[in-house]
Write a structure and sequence with these properties.
Strand content: 25-35%
Mean pLDDT: 95
Order of helices and strands: HEEEEHEHEE
Shape: globular
Helix content: 25-40%
Strand order of the largest sheet: 1-2-7-5-6
Amino acid sequence: MLEIEEILMLRYGLELPVPSEPDGYYSRVIRTGNLLYVCGHTPKRQGEYVFLGKVGEDFSVEQGQEAARIAMTNCLAALKEYLGDLSLIKQFVQVIGYVRSAEHFTQQPLVMNGASELLLTCFGEKGRHTRMALGTNQLPGGAAVEIMCVVEV
């Protein structure tokens, strides 16, 4: 059976990065009971944004899906740093994604499918989750996507 990090590399060409320090006075992961709340993550690689702009204007839905996959990979990196082992995850409970959208863009759920499909591919049924996909006019640093999640351990 392939490890999650092997699946990320083989299927998506993505590696779990070393999490960067938070940009403010917050924690990347907070535990309450058996739930972990993971702060919002954007599509950054080595601390640099890779998708700056609006989906539906600067990027296609497919490019937005790639941005969502990168942002979710950053969430997974924060979880791995906190847990030490991603196999400790029992269930992804909820994913909330914000998509920086062109004025009349309405396909935020399709963009977020990039992150959802990644979780299902890597975690199987443990990756199934509830989800919100929201459009917004601006995100930190001008990022195209920001994702946070709630995980049961």
